[in-house]
Amino acid sequence: MLQYRLNSHKDGRIISTIVFDAADDDVAIEQARERSVLVDGELWCGRRLVASIPMISEPEKPAP
């Protein structure tokens, strides 16, 4: 298992960091996408940037 760090960004600043283990980059990217929904994120493994994770906007609510 490898250790990954997901830094969440808002307005150009890191607002939170989550550290987790995953078997490989693909699994880590999928986990990061599930955790980084309303803000942009960067996924790191040590000093290596694995992926930039864009914000997923909230689904539009239907009009009443």
Report mean pLDDT, rounded to a whole number.
89
Oligomer: single chain
- Share of helix, binned: 10-25%
- Shape descriptor reads globular
Rg = 13 Å
Unreliable residue runs: none
Report the sheet with the most strands, covering strand number, pairing sense and barrel closure.
4 strands, antiparallel
SS-derived structural category: alpha+beta
Percentage of residues in strands: over 45%
Number of domains: 1
Tally of helical runs: 1
Element-level helix/strand string? EEHEE
Walk me through the structure.
This protein has 64 residues and is α+β, with helices and mostly antiparallel strands. The chain has one domain. It has one helix and four strands; from the N terminus they run ββαββ. Strands 2-1-3-4 form a four-stranded antiparallel β-sheet, covered by helices on one side.
Note the topology:
Blueprint: E1 2-10, E2 13-22, H1 25-35, E3 40-45, E4 48-53
Antiparallel strand pairs: 1-2, 1-3, 3-4
List keywords for this structure.
4-stranded antiparallel β-sheet; 4 strands; 1 helix
What's the gist of this structure?
With 64 residues, the chain is an alpha+beta fold.
